[in-house]
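Team,

Forwarding the record for the chain on the shared tracking sheet. I've put the sequence and predicted structure together so nobody has to dig through attachments.
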Amino acid sequence: MQPLSLFDEASSGTHQAAFERWLTDQRDAGALRQPSSIQVYRDMWSSFTAWCLGQSPTVTLASLDTGDLRAFQQARFGMKSADLSLSPRHALRLLRLIDRVLRHHAAATGARANTAAADWIAAQPHVRYAEAAHADPLPEFLSVSEARHLITFLSDARPRPTATGTRRDGQTALSWQQLRNRVAVALQLGAGLTPGDVRVLTLQAPTSQGGRARHRPWKIAVPGNGNSPARETPIAPWAGELLQHWLQVRAESKIAGDFLFPSTRTGKPWSKEAQYLAARQVFADAGLDVADGGSFRLRHTFALRQLRRGTDADQVARWLGIEVEAMGKYRRVVAGPEQVV
């Protein structure tokens, strides 16, 4: 007679395979990079798997329900564990991991998604809003009216076609530096770039091929640095039109070098201080307050706009070049879908 296994090997394999598939996709997409973060997720999932397999009958990914999750969380009280899932904040992180793996498993296998983890979070206000009391401040961002106003102001920097086929400028002709400043701000708002991203972009960064409008850039490649990997992010159509105009003016002005936004005609790189002052001036010229949040408000506005439009948080994190866990500050702002510019 064969000895009985302590756990159901098929169930154990399913739990682990689901996690490994999710982890592989996260790594490939650049959403998870830090070994320490990966190890925390492994510890969290291992503790969850061990509990599932220790129940009678075994709790499978398909059978898991909110009652199981309540029992799992109650079993952890008074226990010290590597994943620190005792506090409401860590409970939230753990249940979000379970939810992501369950949804990924469903997509990979063609099964119906098990929403037990999401349902459990929704039913536990002290866990659901655990991040609201965290010391990390909420991001500064533009209101809908401020964003619309700034987009209108920035868009006036490019010529517009008229009914007669001629072109007109919405404002007095700008110097190439003024145009550069406004297009750089446009990419922070319209593509979620940081000031540092803007300074290191090259002429090879914009992509127009395959877009909806001929010659209009629709995405941009951002090189990696020590903290984040290389990535691509979409460009809002209005910002793409401004970038297209800048590329034309840059070429006509015979500005040298490979930087997309150089400091001088000879192609010298744009310094951090000079770009900071340029962005402040654009805000001032647009009649917006320059005191709070700086130009990072533009990046935060981009992130919030995408979330409110229903874009998956993992995708937005990839566009921003940040860990998905860092999206918590944006989730705390977004109360629900709303129409934004």
